Amino acid sequence: MAKADWIIERELALRREPWTLNGPGRLVKVVNSGESRTEIEGYVTTGIHLLGRTAVGIRKALGLNTDHLGVGLRVYKLARFPHLDEYEYDLSAKFPGGLSYYPQSEEEAKYLEGDSRIPQWKIIKGAAIPVLPDFQELTLSDRLMYSWLLT
Fold it and tell me: What are the pLDDT digits (tens) for 7-23?
């Protein structure tokens, strides 16, 4: 039996995400090195799942676009939590685009399976979330540092 809409809405409103405003529970957005952002949309995760990983390791763990394998990464911290109507929980980075992922184009096929232990949330298109200006730029061998998540 399907749940009533009001029950689903109540469950969503009461859901507690494992996010913090600083530290390892901070929401982060990973983009290619050199991409300048003041706000983001698309997939985000918490910093704890990326700590100590190199740019190559992060790219593999998140299943990022294979066109940019030789490019470093830039990691942004979200300036605020997304509101309930600005995001969807997308389980893990294992399947790009959600659970039943079947690439419909060559562009979509460039995204690989990521790590099933990394939770991800999708910022809904049009709901741009501001990011802080102090991003971390990672070359291929640089590691994401814990101290950066604390500021």
Answer: 777 766 666 788 998 99
Q: How many domains does the chain have?
A: 1
Q: Dihedral through CA 25, CA 48, CA 63, CA 34, nearest 10?
A: 80
User: Model-level pTM?
Assistant: 0.84
Long-range contacts of 94-102 (CB under 8 A, 24+ apart): 94/63, 96/63
Structural domain of residue 130, as residue ranges? 26-150
Cβ atoms of residues 41 and 129 within 8 Å = yes
Please, are residues 30 and 64 in contact by the beta-carbon 8 Å criterion? yes
Q: pLDDT > 70: what percent of the chain?
A: 87
